[in-house]
User: Fold these one by one.
Assistant:
Number 1:
Amino acid sequence: MRATVINAPRDIRVEEVPDAAIKESGDAVVRVVLACICGSDLWAYRGESPRQPGQRIGHEFLGVVEETGSEVAGLKAGDLVVAPFVWSDGTCEHCVEGLTTSCPAGGFWGSVGSDGGQGEAVRVPFAEATLVKLPAEAASDERLLTALLSLSDVLGTGHHAAVGAGVKPGSRVAVVGDGAVGLCGVLAARRLGAERIIALGRHTVRTDIARKFGATDIVAERGDAAVEAVRELTGGKGAHAVIEAVGTEQSMRTAVGITRDGGAIGYVGVPHGSGTGLDLGIMFNRNIALRGGVAPVRTYIPELLPDVLDGTIDPSPVFDLTVGLEGVPGGYAAMDDRTALKTLVKL
Ligand SMILES: [Zn+2]
């Protein structure tokens, strides 16, 4: 089969690799129909998170079950399914408590020895616990299928940040980060009943999507000027709930600055760079809470799926470039130079 591998920073190739195959009785093989490229894939692309030459890449996909192992009862060949960005066993203490990302038996697609999502097929361990079945009729609706793909990562991750920030009906929310996750944070905050949603960003393509997703205000400033602007919009106090979806020192510092005393930050940006941008003394004095991390999207899919299916929320506008499998290297380059927000891969 053909799949995407990373050989070195900025060296992404689509190559012939061994077919995905059943290894354990709980496995399934999924033929990928839609995949995409993630902002966090760009850290490997830019050489900021190390990969082994020839390692697979991609962690977001949906597709059709092609084969199942002998112990898989709830899934059969032909089922349309979406996969969260990690697999998990569904039975350990962490999984039972909903934190599938800490499952000791789990793993990330594209980690050494596993298939990546940007390929023709993927071997899925613990298939019944990991995969979520989708209605068969969704397969013929391209916009809906694209929206459903966001359940694999960005929608659940945006939701995780909104939950971590304590968004509830009537909340005043601010969102740091105008990538697909930040934009899905806007959508998640609106879904949870936020009254006011301030999106920080300066690219009209992205801020237009933020408005479409429910943002009531856009702040184009950065750094201290952004803090001032958000405070001005919130009676000098800041936002109750702040979503941080970038992971840099600067973005975390801004997040602290725009949070109202007693408020909370939900952080989902993969931390990178030297410092954290967090000053515990300031957070202590102002009673600012911090909650978040790698998002257990498998836990959120059952809650979010009905709203995507009936169109209450439609995250599909975050995908603004579509390529075939052989076009994946170009899809990375377009996201890297920010001419694309998120690349969809159609197989
Ligand atoms: Zn587990």
Number 2:
Amino acid sequence: MNNDQNILTDQFGRVHDYLRISLTERCNLRCFYCMPEEGIVLRPRSEFMSKDEIVSIANTFVALGVKKIRLTGGEPLVRNDAKEIINELSKLPIELAITTNGILVDKFIDTFKANRMNSINVSLDSLQENKLNKITRRNYFKSIYSNIQRLIREDFHVKINAVIMRGVNDDEIIDFIEFTKDNKVHFRFIEFMPFDGNKWDWSKGISYKEMMAIVNNNFKEKVSKIEDKKNDTAKNYQIDRYKGTFAVISSVTNPFCDSCNRIRLTADGRLKNCLFSGSETDLLTPFRNGIDVQPLIIESIWRKKERRSGMETITQFSDSALHSNNRSMVSIGG
Ligand code: SF4
């Protein structure tokens, strides 16, 4: 197989070299903006990619130029064979990273180190125990918080993701930034996004502009803009003399699709060429029938829409009918 660097280029010239693989739809949290109230229908294991299928299909993407793989979920670490999958994937010529809710991290520190997985994203929507337990509908604040502290102590590159919601945790934006004063972490504020079952409406969201107004009003001239990397989804900042940094991910009010290099593979082996695409390409069934899935991948990327799966304007983006055929966040993995 040739390692063609640019074969996964879409009609807009965007090269796709970053694959996010959801290992499972299961999760040990029930965040209300991610997991539908009624939960999701748990399906038979046979409908999901096995370890070997994940590694083989990932290998096909690497042959097509993928250089970075991020493991997501549900919660990727609840999968029984997560360690084996990490051990196998880290043998590929890629950067391997993970997004986790942090609860089980202490059981994986050695696995991360053994596989050069240094970039760990942890979701934490509040620094207040009661509030986090309310958002997640579970009581794991202490283990998540102590695992974040441990990752920092052990020099992992830690990013903390918080979905900012009006009247829920928008009152903590300054506290989150103060957390970066003595902690070398990268706090990222994510605009609340619409997914199936999360009862989204933009009145519950806080825009990038509003967040920065709160920040600038509090920290004034001490806020410095730092350089955004190529393909970065985040707009990055730092408070003078703070150890860590913070950023805003503005998919709703200020999308960053122009430099999108991301592809998603769901736990049941479907390719999503955009986070918001309702149409998917089944790779698992043809793969199980011995069919080469490369052409399917190339074709799907070529068909990718320019912005947010065709939802260009905020009006279109706010039209729940346009989101209804997408999945819930828990079965995409962000
Ligand atoms: S909305 Fe779709 S096209 Fe835009 S950055 Fe996200 S995944 Fe890429």
